[in-house]
Design goal:
- This protein is an alpha+beta fold.
- The chain is built from three helices and two strands.
- It is extended, with a radius of gyration of 18 Å.
Length: about 70
């Protein structure tokens, strides 16, 4: 409802539609990572005993970036 009220356009994409441009994407994004223009963020949960907590947090969207369980 809010989208219609504000005349916003919502558009998604599907990766397979751009498969023919994968090499171009990898080159460009690779350069951005090397140049520090894109930074990866990771949530680290320490201890195998905290795996369930990590999975619950992941499913609830409480992580930032990748979720890693450090053993």
């Amino acid at each position: 409802i809010q989208i219609a009220e504000r005349w916003l356009k919502v558009q998604g994409f599907s990766a397979p539609h751009y498969e023919n441009r994968m090499d171009e994407f990898e080159r460009q994004v690779g350069n951005w990572i090397v140049d520090g223009k894109i930074k990866s963020r990771t949530t680290i949960v320490r201890g195998l005993e905290n795996t369930v907590e990590a999975m619950n947090s992941l499913m609830a969207g409480k992580n930032i970036g990748k979720m890693v369980v450090e053993i």
